[in-house]
Amino acid sequence: MKNVKIEIKWAIFFAIMTLLWMLLENLCGLHGKYIDYHLYLTNLFAIPAIWFMVLALKDKKRNFYHGKMGYKQGLVSGIILSAFIALLSPLTQWVISYVITPEYFPNVIKRSVEIGYYKTTAEAEANFNFKNYAINSTIFAFVFGVITTAIAMIFIRTRR
After folding, report:
1. CA distances from 105 to 32, 44, 101, 128, 130 (A)
2. Where are the domains of the chain?
3. SS3 for 112?
4. Which of 17, 80, 121, 134 is most exposed, with the fewest beta carbons within 10 Å of its own?
């Protein structure tokens, strides 16, 4: 457990940051009045997500490997971190869907049918629901985390 203490800490930080981001999106109207812009502006979440992954890897390098971390060591750390973030994703998605912005799914379903993205409400409901978002966020968190780590470690690793 001591070996993954830093990854657990940063996975919790990442979940908190995700909740704060969704709260901000909701307060800005991206889950309601300005939902047409949500599809584009929500992608800005990649900036703090990448930043947190880099901070976590640097923390691991500095405080666990005493400033000397190879590419493989960082990659393993990032994979573990990504797995913990993925494990927290369904809970994070539940808080987003039922506490922070319970109106998001009804709003996006209605709007996606209005603009013709889906032909029927049933089609939209099949895509925009908690179960689908929980599964997708879990998979995306892991895959995006591993890819981010693989790239970030090129720059963070200790060169010999």
Report:
1. 10, 20, 9, 6, 8
2. 2-156
3. helix
4. 121
